[in-house]
Amino acid sequence: MRGSGLLATVLALLLVAPPAPPAQARAAPVRCTPRKGSMQVAEPWAQRRLDPKRVWPLTSGEGVTVAIIDSGVDLTHPQIRVAKEVDYTGTGHRDCVGHGTAVAGVIAAQYLKGVPFHGVAPGVRLISLKQTNEEHGDPDILARAIVDAADFGADVINVSIDARDDPKLRQAVAYALGQDVVIVAAAGNTTAEDGTPEASYPAAYPGVLAVGSATPDGRRADFSNTVTPVSVLGPGQDITSTWPGRSYMSGLEGTSFAAPYVAGVAALVRARHPELDQERVRWRITATADGGAGTGTGAGMVNPLLAVTAILPLEAADAPVIAPPAPAPLSENAVSRAAPVDREAIDLALTIAAAALCAVGLIVAVRVFVPMGRRRRWRPGREG
């Protein structure tokens, strides 16, 4: 009987108690299938055009830290070295898009003998901050990554991902600029199907070096956003760079790949001119660009050699000229009245000067004509 009562009690509890929640299903793993790259690579036109190796005898970026906020970086690539990694997606450090690996290669791919491709500043220290598995960014995560990059000691931050305007993103940019960080961002891409183009952020924020895309013949690419206030152009069409799977990808295009060329130049400038703050670095890059022509070109194509070596004034060309304050008016007695002219003294001085000149003339005449007369046996006449 006791056993029957115990069984009844257990059955009653089972009927009253709520069913246990099902085990939480695991999130589906991110599909990590970037496009397949090539194991062969040729020297890209952008590398020939900018020719950053001319700067390397002076600096290749040593001592400068560049943060890449993107889709991660393939750490297995032989030309890429990353000093620090941060993942905000919870999906690991793999680059499942290829975007971040390409950006890293443009900035800092190591020079390898026999490999015709290399980065702009291979001597820099890279930090990879993975904030997406796509080619677009979330403003909240992007803002956090910018703040973290500044706190990690980045000297240059490259943002090749665009987002909408957002107060947190704006504050993050202001924070990083206040920490003397150069922020380089893609100006964004537009197509006819996009309708009316809008500004891209963080590129459109004040203080950010916004980069448009240039074609191999030096023109602004048709897709390069003209609404974003562009600072300079970088190569952004038919781009070749490193790719996941220890490979390379050609035919890339977009302001996403123009921005890292400028970020690499910013790193070279910071390494060569450590005394310059982020504002002066930005001005040096725009002041030495190869001249813009038309809307959306900014100051023109970035020029690594001039950006590093040009002799420029210390102040920015567009810095406001602060005039000195106007002097206070003088009192009536501040300046003494001039003394009256002494005419008698002037006349006496002129008379003495004239007499002195006559005496000098007489002495000269005696010294010249008397010897001449003696040579001619001249004697004074005698009276008969």
Any overview of this molecule?
It is a single chain. The chain has 384 residues and is α/β, with parallel strands linked by helices. The protein has a domain at 45-309: Rossmann fold (3-Layer(aba) Sandwich), CATH 3.40.50.200. The chain is 32% helix and 12% strand. It starts with a helix and ends in a 9-residue tail after the last helix. Mean pLDDT is 83; it is low at 6-28, 315-338 and 380-384. It is a single-pass membrane protein. Its main location: membrane.
Question: Radius of gyration, rounded?
Answer: 39 Å
> What's the assembly state of these chains?
single chain
Looking at CATH, which topology of the domain at 45-309 would you report? Rossmann fold
Instruction: Give the SSE string.
Output: HHEEHEHEHEEEEEHHHH
Distance between the termini: 195 Å
Q: Overall 3D geometry?
A: elongated
Query: Helix coverage percent of residues?
Result: 25-40%
Q: Work out the helix count.
A: 9
CATH superfamily of the domain at 45-309: Peptidase S8/S53 domain
Largest sheet entry? 7 strands, parallel
CATH level 1 class label of the domain at 45-309: Alpha Beta
Looking across the biggest beta sheet, what order are the strands in? 2-3-1-4-5-6-7
Strand content: 5-15%
Q: Please state the structural category.
A: alpha/beta
> Number of DSSP strands?
9
CATH second-level architecture of the domain at 45-309: 3-Layer(aba) Sandwich
Given as residue ranges, the uncertain stretches (5+ residues, pLDDT < 50) are 6-28, 315-338, 380-384
Compute the average pLDDT: 83
Keywords: Cell membrane, Hydrolase, Membrane, Protease, Serine protease, Signal, Transmembrane, Transmembrane helix
Main location: membrane
Organism: Microbispora rosea
Domain Peptidase S8/S53: 61-291
